[in-house]
Amino acid sequence: MITVFGEGRGFRVVWLLEEMGLAHRLRPVDLLAGVEKDPEFLAINPAGFIPAIRDGDVTMVESIAIMEYLMARYGPTPLAPAPHDPAFPAYQQFLHLGEAGLAASVYFVVGARNFAPESERQNWSADQALDVFQTRLGLVTRQLAHTPYLAGERFTAADISVTYALELAQHGAGIALGDTEKSYIARTSAREAYRRAMETCQSRKAWFARTPVQ
Fold first, then answer.
1. Which of 43, 73, 74, 175 is packed most tightly, with the most Cβ within 10 A?
2. 77: how many CB neighbours lie within 10 A of its CB?
């Protein structure tokens, strides 16, 4: 039984586990209450951020690294094209772009827009992070103009990575996406594994209900 600690980016991991049919449980982590009050979680990740996993004797953090571990450990899986597959370069690019280029930048926009004092919500750094997000989003838009999924004709873990980032932008920062991205999210979020993951991640489901997209 694989334990996933925390929602947030942990949704990527839960969704992947659902796609792969691997037994798992979600162990909530309340960051707002303060991780210093959660010694069990801090024993898993002393840095105090989510997600983390425990898989037998293995503990890991960082959502993309966790996804790569799970697919390598419990694969092969069509969610991860093999290196000789023509889809592999795009898969690798967008798997990592979903975090490094999209979610990591929009995360700071979410923080500024929702938690900073009113006078600091349009600060220079948040605007720079938004610009980084939007330029990287252009790569997604361009790819989706040619293929239904980011690695080509079939759904892969790259789509889990990027869908999470796009939904974070919509619900967390109020960013309006274009028709191409909206159609893409409609395709990926219609998957049964996505729906099962949302039922597991009840805090995320409630957050979406409170933050309708533009």
1. 175
2. 16
What b/e sequence results for 23-53 when a residue is b if at least 16 CB atoms lie within 10 Å of its CB, and e otherwise? ebebbebeeeeebeebeebeebbeebebbbb
Give pLDDT, residue 119. Answer: 78
Q: Are 158 and 95 in contact (CB under 8 A)?
A: yes
Kindly report the pTM of this predicted structure.
0.96
Alpha-carbon distance of 166 to 66, in angstroms, equals 20
Distance between CA atoms of residues 26 and 6, nearest Å: 7
| The pLDDT value given to residue 123 | 85
| Residue-level pLDDT at 120 | 80
**pLDDT greater than 90 at residue 124:** no
Write down the pLDDT at residue 116: 77
- Residues 205, 208: Cα–Cα separation, whole Å: 5
